[in-house]
Write a structure and sequence with these properties.
With 291 residues, the protein is an alpha+beta fold. It has one domain (2-282): Double-stranded beta-helix (4-Layer Sandwich), CATH 3.60.130. The protein contains eight helices and 15 strands. The chain has helices at 25-37, 50-60, 100-105, 144-149, 153-159, 168-174, 182-187, 221-235, and strands at 2-5, 11-15, 40-43, 83-86, 122-131, 139-143, 163-166, 191-194, 196-198, 205-207, 213-216, 241-244, 251-255, 259-263, 274-281. The protein has a seven-stranded mixed β-sheet with strand order 1-2-3-13-5-15-4, covered by helices on one side. A three-stranded antiparallel β-sheet has the order 12-6-14. It has a three-stranded antiparallel β-sheet with strand order 8-7-11. Helix 1 (25-37) links the parallel strand 2 and strand 3 (40-43). It is globular. Bound molecules: N-oxalylglycine and manganese (II) ion (MN). Manganese (II) ion is lined by residues 108, 112, 114, 261.
Length: 291
């Protein structure tokens, strides 16, 4: 196994490993160490099928058991824990342009951290590229530890104690999507998360931002949202961002505790993009973790 930094100091590439084979304990440890030091790791040319992607993810820690989707019954993938990050319908054709799932999935174009809207949010996400479009469809990552480091001491002191409410309803309503069912509104009840968290593997502080944020406790909403925009703009300045141009069979793993990411547009009306994501769950709600 070979690890080398690529492009940016929070992104590495790992080669000389076959993720189809069961990982050894030493490989699991080395991957975790690389994740702690970097935050985004690219494994090129891993021709995994669903069973192999599932087994690989499961080996690294407890999986998220529920998907945050709309129309949950319309599923194409064999595992409940596998997220369908594609523009494809159950029969493999491109989704109808007015499909509710398409509207909902467009929320991935906003900067976010996976599952920050769940009481216990996500740890690592692993996204595997099965079919990529000829152009566009990059995924961008932003380094939230570097963003914290570069804040002024005054801003650090101001935001350090703050708690935000996160919900999928907040991120989707930014795009004008409000077609939630009663059950979805219940499922996506806002949850509190710290705005600043300590990344356990590196000991570094990180801002914990996402488009899922809709309020900051103790602040009027407009004041809260102006602050969140300000911080998001800072944290996603190009100096903190790595843009991943996909090759087929890349597997990209990121740490949601200290990065944000977003999809970039592509011609989703005519080109297929089929990506499948496994997600590890974090240990506890951020408020139950050490500050
Ligand atoms: C995800 C996600 C972005 C993309 O899989 O969690 O946000 O580029 N994906 O598809
Ligand atoms: Mn995501």
């Amino acid at each position: 196994m070979r690890i080398k930094a690529i492009g940016s100091d929070f992104v590495a590439e790992i080669t000389d490993i076959d993720l189809r084979a069961p990982l050894t304990d030493a490989q699991v440890i080395a991957i975790d160490q690389a994740m702690d030091q970097y935050a985004v790791v690219v494994f090129p040319a891993q021709a995994l099928n669903d069973d192999q992607e599932f087994a690989f993810a499961q080996r690294l820690g407890p999986l998220e058991e529920t998907r945050a989707v709309v129309d949950v019954h319309k599923q194409r993938l064999p595992y409940n824990q596998m997220n369908d990050i594609s523009n494809l319908d159950v029969d493999g054709s491109i989704m109808a342009l007015d499909d509710r799932r398409r509207m909902f999935n467009l929320g991935n174009l906003l900067w976010h951290s996976d599952s920050s809207f769940k009481a216990t949010p996500a740890k690592y996400s692993m996204l595997h590229a099965r079919v990529i479009p000829p152009e566009g469809g990059n995924t961008e990552f932003a380094d939230m530890r570097a963003a914290w480091d570069r804040l002024t001491p005054e801003m650090k002191a101001h935001i350090d104690p703050l708690v935000c409410d996160h919900s999928l309803i907040y991120s989707r309503s930014q795009l004008g999507f409000d077609a939630f069912t009663e059950q979805e509104l219940i499922n996506y009840t806002p949850v509190p998360q710290r705005l600043v968290r300590r990344h356990p593997g590196s000991g570094r502080q990180s801002v914990y931002l996402a488009s899922h944020i809709g309020t900051v406790h103790g602040m009027p909403r407009p004041e809260a949202m102006v602050l969140i925009r300000e911080l998001t703009e800072h944290a996603t300045a190009r100096e903190f961002v790595y843009s991943h141009k996909w090759n087929q069979f890349d597997l990209v793993m990121w740490d949601n505790r200290c990065t944000m990411h977003r999809a970039r547009p592509y011609d989703d009306k005519h080109c297929k993009r089929d990506m499948r994501r496994m997600t590890l769950t974090d240990s506890a709600p951020t408020l139950a973790q050490p500050a």
